What we know:
Layout: H1 8-28, E1 39-53, E2 56-71, E3 79-85, H2 95-102, H3 120-123, E4 135-140, E5 146-151, H4 157-163, H5 167-173, E6 177-180, E7 185-190, E8 197-204, E9 207-208, E10 212-213, H6 223-229, H7 235-242, E11 259-269, E12 274-282, E13 295-301, E14 304-305, E15 312-315, E16 323-331, E17 336-343, H8 350-355, E18 360-364, E19 387-390, E20 399-402, E21 407-408, E22 423-424, H9 431-437, E23 443-446, E24 454-457, E25 462-463, E26 474-475, H10 478-484
Antiparallel strand pairs: 1-2, 2-7, 3-6, 3-8, 4-5, 8-9, 8-10, 11-12, 12-16, 13-15, 13-17, 14-16, 17-18, 19-20, 21-22, 23-24, 25-26
Amino acid sequence: MMVWATSPMMIVSVIYAYVMLIKIGMHCCVIDRDIAPVKFAIDMRYRSDRIAINGSWKYYALADIKFHVTEGQGIDFDGIMYHLGNGVFSGPISESSMLLAGGYNGMVPPVLVPAGSVPPHLREGRNSCDAHINKTIWTADENGTALQCRIPCEGIIFDEMCYLGTDVCTHLSHGFRTLSKDTRNITIPIIFGTKYRIELYVYRGWHLGVRQSTGYVDSALFCRHELVTKFNITTEYADVHCGEQHEMDPTWYTTGPVRNLRVVSKSVDFFMNQGEVELEWKPPLDIYKLSSIKGYNIFAVNARLAGYNGMYFVPHEPRNGWIKVKFDRMILGKKTYIRVTPTTVSPNCYNCATYGRSSETIKIRNPDINACESLLGQTPFCVSIADCEDVSANDRPAAVCTCPPGYIGNGIDPEYEFGTGCAEYNACSNMAAVRRRCDVHASCKVSPRNSLEFYCSCPCGFVGDGYLTGSGCKYDASMEKLKAR
């Protein structure tokens, strides 16, 4: 037989906890009952914005979060519980950011304690009332109308409610906040240089529904990058404004993205029937204070860094402030994606290149071309007198060039490697054929009927048909006798 050892104080606390739960439920119209599964589709995106304070602009980052019910439509619940976390304990948001939050309609301050972790006040043995007096919670009355009330917190009761397994209470003490049941979008100020995830529950009474989370949303915002590229602020001002207040968290990133990633020029390799492109970009503005950029990892789809195969690394060697790189082997008729990731570690940081931490991606259209038509800024593949036949994007070269009758060559413009153009054909210029057919003393004559043919003719003073297979060309002695007279 098992005997539980209890103290009078513990019994009183437990009884008091139940009494308080009942009182709270009656006061806030909370009915303690289970909830059927309700699921959301969640979309979280980051953006930067600014606000005028005392005549000057202040800049900050935001997370816009939207969600709607996908399963459990029509199931009633009291409210929504959420937590925005960045995976590391970053401390409270700065007072300046809180000031901005207070001046922006719809903002609520972020909670940066990781969801599910033990809050500092519990780790240190203090009761939750020290930091969580009068927690606000959304609920609903008997008619289903949303209303907001506060949970009284007296002595140790708040902790005791958590010990009794009231899930809503436990999550409130872990930094979660509540929303009315009809809320479907919120905007929360965040810190530059890190990424976040949102965790949601619906609740009824003291019970939670199914946990839902976005996972960590990448594409974090970086203070200097946003101010310079979006708001056209000078780099000097961005350095002053960002400073240590927006220092990035090296847990996620050691550098921001590159700037001004763009196409410099495009061309077509007609022999390979593939596209070529030259890109350029500027180095990132945001770099962790203990790091330096070693280079850039390149991840390309439907393109190859000229002269390389596989993973590509471009050293950090800017010229006039720009990095320039050429790509080739771009299949025409397909899109090309090129991602540039700054790295502060050794070349071929596979984790950075593959997963695109702090990356910029450019999409390039490669329409299938007609090689027989004149392309802007590029010499036509075939010379003008040649017959040109365009081929499919999978064939090589990009076109078949054929010289007209009476001309020789491959018809490709001599500006391209191996191009010989079309030259008027002189049958007698083929000396090998002439030597095989004509006598050594014979002369070669182009046929008047067909310029591709020739015939052999003996010069004056010789007789014969001029052909090696015929009578050849023999000296005519009678001509000497005529001269002697």
